[in-house]
Specification:
The protein has 210 residues and is of the alpha/beta class. The protein is 36% helix and 22% strand. The strands form 2 sheets. The chain has an 8-stranded mixed sheet with strand order 3-2-1-4-5-6-10-8, sandwiched between helices. A two-stranded parallel sheet has the order 7-9. Helix 1 packs across helix 6, helix 2 crosses helix 3 and helix 3 packs parallel to helix 5. The chain is globular and about 50 Å long. The two termini are 28 Å apart.
């Protein structure tokens, strides 16, 4: 497949690029600073761009089979970036008639399992209060997705870890795995790539966790 990856210098985005190349896909990595990418390959095109300019981004998505995005706030100071930048990606995709889009969101944005234990509910409540601006940004991003003409999927992981790829995790379409507390960035990337052709995940939030 011919894929475009936004947020390619972030932890999940870089893993998407690396794993997609290993799987034999052609990849366009859209970045602000190419020096930060740290991934090379014959099937890789590095596309420097201002991520707020939909017209500039059109060339990065034109003719692609799917777009995957690791864009999002890295801290409370970055709240607002996910909705703003994803909006620019959506406008570029719609202008070029590209439909498939997979993005990273977060577990607290979606519904919690009804049978979660009290500890999980308390921790979720505390984290949601501390990072309320971040999650408000991600909810706004998901609202942008829902209002778009794309075949989107929002992948919602819990706490992220910098650990090796396992390929072993749980997913719940429209929900979240019970007691799912952690997942490696590499496995989030793996899940996103595996969902590209999964029609069950189209226009859905998908919880993913160990």
């Amino acid at each position: 497949m011919n894929l475009t990856v936004f947020g390619a210098t972030g932890g999940i985005g870089r893993e998407i690029v690396r794993q997609a190349l290993d799987a034999g896909h052609r990849v366009t990595a859209v970045v602000r600073d190419p020096a930060r990418l740290g991934v090379t390959g014959d099937a890789l095109e590095v596309f420097p761009a201002d991520l707020t300019d939909p017209e500039r981004l059109r060339a990065a998505v034109a003719g692609r089979d799917a777009v995957l995005s690791g864009l999002g706030p890295r801290s409370r100071k970055d709240a607002g970036v996910a909705a703003r930048l994803t909006g620019a990606v959506l406008r570029a995709m719609e202008a070029e008639g590209v439909r498939r889009l997979l993005v990273v969101s977060a577990a607290p944005v979606g519904p919690a399992p009804q049978d979660d234990g009290i500890l999980d509910r308390v921790v979720l409540s505390l984290v949601s209060a501390v990072l309320k601006d971040v999650y408000a940004d991600l909810r706004a991003m998901e609202a942008e997705l829902a209002g778009s003409g794309t075949d989107w999927t929002s992948v919602r992981p819990p706490r992220l870890q910098d650990k090796p790829l396992t390929g072993r995790y749980r997913t719940v379409v429209g929900g979240f795995p019970r007691a799912g507390r952690f997942i490696a960035r590499a496995d989030v990337a793996h899940a996103m790539l595996s969902m590209i052709d999964d029609e069950e995940t189209v226009k859905q939030g998908v919880g993913v966790a160990y």
